[in-house]
Design a protein that fits this description.
Length: about 325
């Protein structure tokens, strides 16, 4: 078992894999190159990223994008259409307005007029793109935010790199999203914990697991309200914004975890299901065959709801 880790995209990453003792330095370089590519193309925190340059481009300009960035935007827009806008990569202006983006934090909600003004700038239907030439039109109001899909895509890039190096047994983590292939030494699945959505971690840095499951040939994505939030007037405002209303979610969903074949899907679907809420989210996941776990806030505790496909994973 080899282990490497580091920091990227404002968070941490780690890779565990079965390989030769002399391989970690080479593998680290390859992993960091993929993470750097995603950060340089898709970060909203870097003014010189490809995404930030598109967001700041002149109104009416067509912008040719790198293939990786275009692929992620196209995937995000497909999910936006499929979920009726519950997932929407154009939510960037609202994320910034609420203080959860690169524009800076805040400790009180914005006024309703400002929220409505930012809603005028959002809507996945307004994005025009030309797939044949890999270009997107900047309308003058478009501000894309890919923070709920880019880490998952990074998992896939790293996984593809590892497999190209002949590594078939690995576990990759980027910002809490996971992708596992093959098995641990000895043949068992990679065991990963789904965190109980507590607002504060323990003093020693440990987490409280809700479940521990085996991850083999799949990715695991999570979306929760317990990491980034502020409280004002007795109400909690978390970073998950409903693009349909312009307000942070207030539907009782503390977290959603999704298992899918690819990281790009697991990551984005977890956010989409959070916005849909438990009833509509379970109905959507059931129709699409998505393995999903909802953890709901109930008084001082939590309650679980899950799809049959996720229940089957826990029963293994």
């Amino acid at each position: 078992m080899q282990s490497i880790d580091g920091e990227s995209m404002g968070s941490t990453w780690a890779v565990r894999y079965v390989g030769a003792d002399d391989s970690p330095e080479k593998i680290r370089d390859g992993v960091e190159a993929r993470l750097l590519l995603v950060d340089q193309q898709m970060s909203t925190w870097k003014a010189d990223s490809d995404l930030s340059r598109f967001n700041a481009a002149p109104a009416g300009s067509w912008n040719v994008l790198p293939p990786e960035l275009f692929k992620v935007i196209e995937s995000a827009l497909e999910l936006a259409e499929d979920t009726g806008g519950a997932y929407d990569p154009t939510v960037g202006p609202l994320v910034d307005l609420w203080g959860f983006g690169a524009a800076g934090s805040r400790r009180e909600p914005p006024d309703p007029a400002s929220i409505e003004a930012m809603r005028e700038r959002t809507g996945w239907q307004r994005v025009r793109f030309d797939a044949s030439q890999r270009r997107i039109l900047q309308s003058g109001a478009t501000h894309l935010d890919l923070s709920s899909i880019a880490p998952g895509y990074a998992l896939d890039l790293i996984g593809e790199y590892l497999e190209a190096q002949g590594i078939g047994d690995y576990l990759v983590e980027v910002g809490g999203e996971l992708r596992g292939r093959g098995s641990r030494p000895g043949g068992s699945a990679w065991h990963v914990a789904i965190q109980r959505p507590l607002d504060n971690d323990s003093a020693d840095g440990s987490i409280t697991p809700q479940h521990v499951i085996g991850l083999r040939d799949a990715a695991l994505g999570s979306s929760g309200d317990y990491r980034h939030f502020f409280e004002a007037g007795g109400r909690r405002y978390a970073h998950r914004i409903d693009p349909r209303s312009g307000w942070p979610l207030d539907n009782g969903v503390a977290s959603v975890t999704v298992m899918a074949p690819l990281g790009i899907d697991a990551d984005a679907l977890a956010t989409a299901l959070s916005v849909l809420g438990v009833d509509a989210g379970l109905e959507y996941a059931g129709r699409r065959g998505v393995a999903a776990l909802f953890i709901l806030r109930k008084g001082e505790g939590f309650e679980e709801r899950m799809t049959p496909t996720f229940a089957a994973l826990l029963a293994r």
